[in-house]
Amino acid sequence: MIAPKQKDYTVMTSRATRKTKQCLWCGSEFTYERSTKKHCSENCRRAFNIKAQRKREKENERRRTREALRRRWVNLEERRADLPSQMQDALADEYEGYGNMVGEKKSDQIGRKIEEARPLWDRDERMIRRDAEKAGIPWEQVIAPKKPRKARPSAAKPSVDSQMVVQREQFVRPPSRPMPKIETKRERKVLHRKG
Fold this sequence. Notes:
The chain is mainly alpha-helical. The chain has 4 helices and 2 strands. It has helices at 9-12, 42-96, 106-135, 139-143, and strands at 20-22, 29-31. The protein has a two-stranded antiparallel sheet with strand order 1-2. Strand 1 (20-22) and strand 2 (29-31) form a beta hairpin. Helix 2 runs antiparallel to helix 3.
């Protein structure tokens, strides 16, 4: 049996109706069947995806470095703020008469600690600045506080003023009715005995 001849649809379509796109990788024009196609061949698609993946990895590495530098800066700021706050407490205690009467005053001890720690704080700040410059991250991004995420509209709760109390009728269950009795006729099988 001879197979029926297949129609060649490419001949039937005219050049005017064919749709062309420009390949995102090599820039050559190609005809496409699907509107989602972006590349002229499989090789171009692979090369484009590999480059895009490397770019994403580089951006992720830069973001991780920026976050690590920001954490180091926040830690340094907390250390810088800790001793002066202890100094304020010690001065307040001494003013109220709760200071250490024997030996050195607590405020003097904390003052000495601050003087000893100041070069270390400066050294840590220089190291953070150097690492940020090495990574190519602007200093403003390191010291800037992290921006809070915007709440999604669906997650945002309405305010108390905008909440309206809706009065609904109370649900009343209808009274139950007994099930109707259905009479069934059973066939009675009588066994005939031979007698």
